[in-house]
Design brief:
The protein is α/β, with parallel strands linked by helices. It contains eleven helices and 17 strands. The N and C termini lie far apart (94 Å).
């Protein structure tokens, strides 16, 4: 293969010094064919590319190796075999060649598959008030000196990119209801559609395509706020890519370095201040002349008006003990003595517990999220 320096010498000798081809061949110890090739092509570099890679030992085993590679690619990441294991399996079937041939072939095969199946996406565009996206993330903070893993609800308006986040101890259904109400109260309205992951608190059954059987209480919430729920295709995060990106953004800007607070109320106040400050300081990704906050204020007029708080509770039946206590979620809560002997209904909200009997409230307490706690109200 000709190096770049030799090609340059040939070109200078012929075009500048006007030496004959015979003299150039003698001085550089090259054949006339090579010198003529350089002069006629006007190229400054040459690279030899083998059109066919001979594989005398691997050739008969290519179909089997293709099958192994395809089957291995289709497995979950943690179950995939290494190339060494695939080579050993091929040797066990009778292949007598070396590992290097298998490695080169696998590299070419992977490149070809990537060119065939490379994903491409069309950017989604949303009209004002058309849709919002909802998702959860897990973060680690220090609350009252204790390292705690919290769940953070994320809501994002698709048109203005305005974001809202709120922290909770869990991802239960009553937390979903509370997060929506606080987000819509902050936005002073909601959108026509809500785009969701297939979370169990919202979706009970996934059918073919986009058909879903939604949770009854979740549908009641959507009906209250006049929202049409839309669930994403499983494992298709790009369908709600804005809120997926928001998770990383919030983690970087609001949870790094690790946050230290005394309570959830203090943490949520910090998060609300943080998202407002971010929206006022950063330009809209498409309308560069506006900040996110300005685009949000312009979108407010197109939002569906806020319908007021949805009575978002999770109800379970319970029994009252002889000591006037009701067990719920690994904790005990006191009730009126008159409630003993008959079943009650525990209504769990995000921050409080309400206990009813025959439509009458017999107890109301702040909610406890530990284990083995007893909450009294004499």
């Amino acid at each position: 293969m000709l190096v770049v320096e030799t090609v340059a010498k040939i070109r200078r000798a012929y075009f500048v010094q006007h030496k004959p081809i015979k003299q150039i061949c003698r001085e550089l110890k090259l054949s006339r064919k090579v010198v003529r090739k350089v002069i006629r092509s006007e190229a400054t570099a040459f690279r030899y590319t083998r059109s066919v890679q001979p594989a005398p030992k691997l050739g008969p085993w290519r179909d089997e190796l293709d099958r192994m590679l395809a089957a291995n690619t289709g497995k979950p990441a943690r179950e995939r075999l290494t190339l060494t294991r695939i080579f050993e399996a091929l040797r066990g079937l009778g292949y007598e060649g070396g590992y290097d041939a298998v490695r080169r072939y696998a590299k070419t095969w992977k490149r070809q598959q990537a060119s065939v199946t490379a994903p491409a996406f069309v950017p989604l565009v949303f009209a004002p008030g058309e849709a919002y996206q909802f998702d959860w993330s897990h973060e680690i903070v220090l609350i009252a000196g204790v390292t705690t893993t919290i769940k953070v609800a994320h809501v994002r308006l698709c048109h203005s990119r305005m974001l809202f986040v709120r922290a909770y101890p869990r991802e239960s259904q009553e937390m979903v209801f509370d997060a929506h109400d606080r987000a819509f109260a902050f936005f002073r309205g909601t959108c026509q559609r809500g785009i969701y992951d297939n979370v169990k608190t919202a979706v009970e059954t996934i059918f073919v395509g986009r058909e879903r059987a939604y949770n009854r209480r979740f549908l009641q919430m959507c009906s209250h706020y006049l929202v049409e729920p839309v669930a994403c295709t499983p494992a298709s995060g790009w369908e709600k890519g804005q809120v997926e990106n928001q998770v990383g953004l919030v983690r970087e800007r609001l949870f790094t370095p690790r946050v230290r607070v005394r309570s959830y109320d203090e943490l949520n106040a910090l998060l609300l201040d943080g998202v407002v400050a971010y929206a006022k300081a950063h330009p809209h990704p498409e309308q560069r002349e506006l900040t996110i906050w300005q685009a949000f204020e312009a979108e407010r007029g197109a939002l569906v008006p806020y319908a007021g708080r949805f009575d978002g509770f999770h109800a379970v039946p319970a029994a009252v003990s002889s000591t006037c206590l009701v067990r719920f979620d690994n904790n005990k809560y006191s009730v009126m003595a008159s409630a003993i002997g008959r079943p009650v209904e525990v209504r769990a909200y995000a921050e409080r517990i309400e206990i009813r009997q025959d439509g009458r409230v017999v107890a109301e307490h702040p909610r406890a999220f530990g284990r083995g706690q007893t909450v009294f109200d004499p």
